[in-house]
Write a structure and sequence with these properties.
Aminopeptidase; eleven-stranded mixed beta sheet; globular; alpha+beta; about 30% strand; 11 strands
Length: about 280
Amino acid sequence: MITIEEEKYILDRAYIPEHIVGLMTCVSGGEPYLIENYFCCRKDDWIILVGYPLERDSTVKDLEVVIAETKKRFRPKYLSLIAPKLPSSLGALCEEKESDSYYTLGIPIGPIKSNIGRLIRKAQENATIERSTEMREAHQELTEEFIGRVNPPLRLRNLFLKMPDYVGHAEGSVVLNAWDNNKNLAAFYVVDLAAKGFSAYVIGCHSKKNYVQGASDFLCWEMIEMSVEQGKKYVHLGLGVNEGIRRFKKKWGGLPTRAYEMCELVLKRPSILDAFRSMQ
């Protein structure tokens, strides 16, 4: 576990969403730890290690030392690692790998593009934005609609399903709602304000059933306005994910500013004895 002072240390130096303690403990269900200047979460025999050092002068060699220390200290069966660059020693050992880039948007952003402005004005005619710290039945219905329509990967599906517990319980969590003129939820964004230097877009979706043109742009504008009010230096827009999402982030001026690599490791294989025990 970490102390209040250690959590403040992490949030003061955070520069990616995975450094946000409240977000990570909610999503993983684990307990937070600091190993050297790296943040991690532990749940049972699973460790999530955030390989982005809180002190910027660390090296890949430092990360290898921390991985070894993590394995020695916790003896996990599973290790999920994210880092700007994976140690070469892990290359062949990863059960699952992923590469992407983090996108960020410096604020204030200055005049917005004319096409975005038109979409926002159109949305303002048909929707109202609300800032809230709770998610209600309407959010569940929209989430179910979105999951049924898009069939997102399991990891993203699980993230959506954990949002009601996260929003309102984690300090700094906010949900931005776009309600249409008939009081239907047209879209929502979940945003985290806990990190000192930035706001983090966590997740969001829009409705086709209660569609409002420009609702996502309206919410993005509100997120930026809120971030400026909170004195943030930039908005962290998360990963590129796919071409459609990258296009939206770039449209707003988001830039790929940091490399992302992910590796899932299985450190302990079940033995023959374990197999027999599971049959009893």
